[in-house]
TrEMBL record:
Cross-referenced Pfam families: YchJ_M-like
Name used for this protein in its record: YchJ family metal-binding protein
Boundaries of every YchJ-like middle NTF2-like domain copy: 1-91
InterPro entries cross-referenced by the UniProt entry: NTF2-like_dom_sf, YchJ-like_M
Record organism: Uliginosibacterium flavum
Amino acid sequence: MMRSRYSAFALGLGDYLRATWHASSCPTDLDVSTPPQPKWIGLKIAAVAQQDETHATVHFIARCRVGGRAERLEENSRFVLEDGRWYYLDGDIA
């Protein structure tokens, strides 16, 4: 799930991001196409942990360039399983 969401951010696939974002926390103003958008250049999954049957976390580091400047996003993301599908719930920036 994390890799597909990263790819969706990189490709500007807002509909996919909304479809994989839990309804309780999905932003209404998600914009993945208005410049300046980051150019995503790498993803590292640092850790994955399942808390119980329906909750899991993913610690990741994503690298990007914004206006030619290298940046990184490190987050501990929470996912929830509903109706057989995992949804991104929220995350804490590390």
